[in-house]
C-alpha cells in the first residue's frame, strides 16, 4: 500500500509531458486492434463429432494491459448443413465452467435442423475453462474433499445450523480453495469475470467474419450474452438467453434464490415418483409433502450413517447424497436414474448410484480426475459481483434458505463462502445490464426451472431495454429444445428471420 502511494506521488510530480494517458491509450488501442487481425486456421479436431473443425485464437489476459500476457481460446465449428448459411451461431451451455467447445459437438440436439441449415454452430471454451488456459486450483483429491462437505467433525451435518467445529471447517475449506487458486494461477484468477468473456467473444465474432453476433446462451451463458449486449449493443443481431440469470444480484443472493427453484423442481420430481408403482419415497396415497419428508429424513440419517459405495473408498455422506439427488433437478431425463439410486440407497444402504450421479454432475471422470468446471464456476461467480466478507452473512443466508428449501437451501448458501476470500481487486460491481441500443433480445424462462428460477428471466427481460420474454410453462432447466414445439418454432423464427413475438408470450 505504501509503495503504491510513493509511486503515485512520483508520477504526479514528474516533468511536464503529453496529456496523461494519451500515448498509452493510443498504444493500447493499437494492440487491441491487432487481435482482430488474427485468422482462424480451421483444422481437424482431436475429438468430437465427425465433420467438426477446430481452431484457436488469442485474447489479452488483461484488457487494461493488452500488451501483456495472452490467453489461447479453443473454438469448434459444426458447419451449416445448407448451402446458403447466414453466418455463425455462437453457443454456450452455461456453468460457469461449461465447455462451449464440447457443446458444439451436440449441434443436432441443441438446435433444430432448420437452424443448422442456416448457421455454422460455433462453441468456444471461455477463458480459464477446458482447453482455454484452464484455471486449476485443487487437485482431484482436494476436490473430492471439498465437494464432500463438512465431515469428521463434531456436528450433525445440518447446514442450516452449523456447529462451531463445522463452521471452522467451512471457513478453512473455502479459504484453502482460494489459496490454491492463488498459488496455481495468480494472474488468471484476477481476470475470470464475464465482462472479459464477452470481450473475448466479440473478438471471435470478428474472426468468424460476422458483422453482428447471433448467439444462443443457456443458464450462465445468458449472463455472457447480456454482458455482450451491454458492451457491444450495435453488434447484436440476435441473442437467445435461455434459463436466465439476474445480473443485478450478488452471488449470495443468487444462491438463496436458486434454492427456491430447486425446491419447486424437487416437488415436481417427488410428485412424479409417487405416481409410479415402486417409488422409494412412498406410495400413491402419500402427499408430496410426505414424499419430501421421507427424502429429508433419509438424507439427515446419512450424516450419521453414510452409505456404501462400490466404486471407490469415498463414503456417501449427506453432502454427496444431496449432490446425487440434486442431479435429478436439472432435467427430467435424469429422474429414472435418481429414483433407482434412491431405491438402492434407502433399501439396501447402497449409495453407489447416487455417487455416480454426483460425479456426473461435477464432471468427475472414471480416472478420478475432474474437468476444471468447479474451479471455473467458483472463480467466475466470485468475480462477477461483490460478496459479503463477514461469515455471519452466510450463516444468516443459510438460515433464510432453510425456511423455503430446507433440503438444498443451506448448502447452496454456504457454497458461496469462497467468495468471502476472493481477491477484492478481481471483483466487479453488481449492476443491472440494459444493453441500450441493442436490437431485440429474446429471454426464455421456464416456470418451474430448477437452476435458474423463472423470476430471473422476468428480471433480465425487464432490465434489458430491448429484452422480450418468452415463457415455457413446464419443468426442467431451460426451455429451447426441451420438447415444446411452440418454444422451438418461436426461437427458430427469431434466430433465422429475426421475427419477434409479442413480449410475454407463453407456451404451455
From TrEMBL:
Pfam families: Abhydrolase_1. SUPFAM superfamilies: alpha/beta-Hydrolases. GO terms for molecular function: hydrolase activity. Residues 89-477 form the AB hydrolase-1 domain. Keywords: Hydrolase, Signal. It comes from the Bacteria. InterPro entries: AB_hydrolase_1, AB_hydrolase_fold, Serine_prot/Carboxylest_S33. PANTHER family: 2-SUCCINYL-6-HYDROXY-2,4-CYCLOHEXADIENE-1-CARBOXYLATE SYNTHASE, TRIPEPTIDYL AMINOPEPTIDASE. Belongs to the peptidase S33 family. This is Peptidase. It comes from Nocardiopsis sinuspersici.
Amino acid at each position: 500500500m505504501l509503495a503504491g502511494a510513493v509511486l503515485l506521488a512520483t508520477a504526479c510530480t514528474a516533468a511536464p509531458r503529453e496529456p496523461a494517458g494519451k500515448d498509452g491509450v493510443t498504444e493500447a488501442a493499437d494492440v487491441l486492434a491487432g487481435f482482430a487481425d488474427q485468422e482462424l486456421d480451421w483444422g481437424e479436431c482431436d475429438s468430437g463429432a465427425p465433420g467438426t473443425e477446430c481452431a484457436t485464437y488469442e485474447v489479452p489476459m488483461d484488457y487494461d494491459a493488452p500488451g501483456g500476457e495472452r490467453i489461447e481460446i479453443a473454438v469448434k465449428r459444426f458447419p451449416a448443413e445448407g448451402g446458403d448459411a447466414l453466418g455463425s451461431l455462437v453457443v454456450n451451455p452455461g456453468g460457469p465452467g461449461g465447455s462451449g467447445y464440447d457443446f458444439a459437438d451436440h449441434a443436432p440436439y441443441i438446435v433444430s435442423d432448420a437452424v443448422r441449415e442456416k448457421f455454422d454452430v460455433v462453441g468456444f471454451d471461455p477463458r480459464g475453462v477446458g482447453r482455454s488456459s484452464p484455471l486449476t486450483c485443487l487437485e482431484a483429491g482436494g476436490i473430492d474433499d471439498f465437494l464432500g462437505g463438512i465431515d469428521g467433525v463434531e456436528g450433525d451435518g445440518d447446514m442450516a445450523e452449523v456447529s462451531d467445529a463445522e463452521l471452522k471447517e467451512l471457513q478453512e475449506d473455502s479459504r484453502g480453495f482460494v489459496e490454491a487458486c492463488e498459488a496455481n494461477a495468480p494472474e488468471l484468477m484476477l481476470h475470470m469475470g464475464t465482462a472479459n468473456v464477452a470481450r473475448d467473444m466479440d473478438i471471435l465474432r470478428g474472426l468468424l467474419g460476422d458483422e453482428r453476433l447471433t448467439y444462443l446462451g443457456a443458464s450462465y451463458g445468458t449472463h455472457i450474452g447480456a454482458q455482450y449486449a451491454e458492451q457491444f449493443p450495435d453488434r447484436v443481431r440476435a441473442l437467445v438467453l435461455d434459463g436466465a440469470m439476474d445480473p443485478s444480484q450478488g452471488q449470495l443472493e443468487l444462491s438463496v434464490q436458486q434454492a427456491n427453484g430447486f425446491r419447486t423442481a424437487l416437488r415436481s420430481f417427488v410428485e412424479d415418483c409417487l405416481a409410479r408403482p415402486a417409488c422409494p419415497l412412498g406410495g400413491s396415497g402419500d402427499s408430496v409433502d410426505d414424499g419430501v419428508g421421507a427424502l429429508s429424513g433419509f438424507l439427515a440419517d446419512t450424516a450419521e450413517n453414510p452409505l456404501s459405495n462400490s466404486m471407490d473408498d469415498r463414503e456417501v455422506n449427506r453432502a454427496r447424497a444431496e449432490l446425487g439427488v440434486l442431479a435429478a433437478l436439472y432435467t427430467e431425463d435424469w429422474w429414472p436414474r435418481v429414483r433407482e439410486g434412491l431405491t438402492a440407497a434407502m433399501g439396501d444402504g447402497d449409495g453407489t448410484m447416487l455417487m455416480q450421479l454426483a460425479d456426473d454432475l461435477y464432471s468427475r471422470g472414471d480416472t478420478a480426475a475432474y474437468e476444471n468446471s468447479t474451479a471455473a464456476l467458483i472463480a467466475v461467480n466470485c468475480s462477477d459481483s461483490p460478496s459479503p466478507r463477514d461469515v455471519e452473512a452466510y450463516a444468516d443466508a443459510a438460515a433464510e434458505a432453510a425456511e423455503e428449501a430446507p433440503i438444498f437451501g443451506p448448502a447452496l448458501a454456504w457454497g458461496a463462502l469462497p467468495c468471502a476470500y476472493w481477491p477484492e481487486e478481481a471483483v466487479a460491481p453488481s449492476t443491472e445490464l440494459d444493453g441500450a441500443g441493442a436490437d431485440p433480445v429474446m429471454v426464455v424462462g421456464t416456470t418451474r426451472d430448477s437452476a435458474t428460477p423463472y423470476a430471473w428471466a422476468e428480471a433480465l427481460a425487464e432490465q434489458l431495454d430491448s429484452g422480450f420474454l418468452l415463457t415455457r410453462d413446464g419443468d426442467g432447466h431451460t426451455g429451447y429444445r426441451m420438447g415444446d414445439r411452440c418454444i422451438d418454432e418461436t426461437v427458430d423464427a427469431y434466430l433465422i428471420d429475426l421475427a419477434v413475438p409479442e413480449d410475454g408470450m407463453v407456451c404451455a
